[in-house]
């Protein structure tokens, strides 16, 4: 089934089809690899978004605003956006990308949150010499990616900073064993995040006690999740759960089932850590979902919301988002919207520099302060030279509270990250049998007073006994 071509507009008539924003101009197709000269032209850009997801809705809204701002300010050049639905098989997405380039003559394509989609579309980019700007990046960067897909630009950082942040949280809370949970992608992988986390935990003397690998979410996944959590509960007393990689749908079901099993909440002594891909969406999820995550620690990408450019964008975003998605209660933009806006800016700034060089080369040479942070590329991936910053949050009831900030060079202090009460992260057995020496050498530490011939009547005292009782 062919993908519908969608052009940007100010009003939305149906979820997938948008009227044309601008009148048609003569589009001159440059020879591949030639110098970019876009004066007095309409530059067509393709974008893949999941129009039914919160992330896709934010991205679509933000890209439209970016295009409208550029078209308003530029006297000699305009951009036109063509949106395609990405919530399909990666092979279909790649096929649609080729169709979009051939039929609509787009000069760049934006989107793709999975490495598999990005790789397949990047293959199309090689054949057509069209730059592909992807929101996906591998956990462990490799120079082979740049050689294999020379037209792929990754508008994302690798996973090393977030994994280091997770390890620092585990270290600060003095947890020695953890359980790692992740949802496989459609190709059965985890983008290298599991190996990266294992190394980071090993460096601080923490063991991975159990790995719970969940298949991509389906309609019957909740039953599978419940069975896996019951099996997990019975097989290990470890109660520190790290959700390394997952969709929001999977996480919602995971916490719902974990609460039924008794693995969530302060009284369980369980601890949960969720990644930025989930925490960044907590503002927009239903309160019942947040309440099922009681006590969870979240990592959230930090960005500045105090600049004039952000405030101007925020006003436009909220107005447009409320008008087009009235079913969404929360209308403020998140990090996904900011990155989507900046991705259009990468292309428009490259177009403005079209006095020489290719569009790809000009895109890789941009250097500006975007809404999501400093934008410049190193090895065709968002530069790591800027120190990443995460916000640590803690779910409390139907809301979440900001605890602290994390940067790679942050010195971990005794009271960091700021939890009021640190869970044990370990299940305490309901009944325990303790062996006590009957004739201890130092009675001030252990003393047994026999009351009868029945050992159950013995009285136990001493410093060591009292310490054990207090800790239990």
CA-CA gap between termini? 63 Å
* Biggest sheet architecture: 7 strands, mixed
What percent of the residues sit in helical stretches (DSSP H or I)?
25-40%
Order of neighbouring strands in the sheet with most strands: 8-7-9-10-11-15-16
E-strand count: 18
Rg value:
27 Å
Poorly predicted ranges: 1-6, 8-34
Determine the structural class based on helices, strands and strand pairing. Answer: alpha/beta
Number of helical stretches of at least 4 residues: 14
Strand percentage lies at 15-25%
Shape: elongated
Mean pLDDT: 85
Characterization of this structure:
The protein is of the alpha/beta class. The protein has 14 helices and 18 strands. Strand 2, helix 1 and strand 3 form a beta-alpha-beta unit.
What does this entry show, briefly?
The chain has 472 residues and is an alpha/beta fold. The chain has 14 helices and 18 strands. Helix 5 (160-172) runs parallel beside helix 6.
Key structural traits:
alpha/beta, disordered N terminus, seven-stranded mixed sheet, six-stranded mixed sheet, 472 residues
Strand and helix map with partners:
Layout lengths: L5 E2 L33 E9 L4 H20 L3 E9 L4 H15 L3 E4 L3 H14 L3 E3 L8 H6 L3 E3 L5 H13 L4 E7 L9 H10 L4 E8 L6 H15 L4 E6 L2 H14 L9 E4 L1 H4 L7 H5 L5 E5 L6 H17 L10 H18 L6 H6 L2 E3 L4 E5 L2 E2 L7 E7 L2 E8 L40 E3 L9 E3 L1 H9 L1
Parallel strand pairs: 2-3, 2-4, 4-5, 5-6, 7-8, 7-9, 9-10, 10-11
Antiparallel strand pairs: 1-3, 11-15, 12-13, 13-14, 15-16, 17-18
Helix pairs in contact: 1-11, 1-12, 2-3, 5-6, 7-8
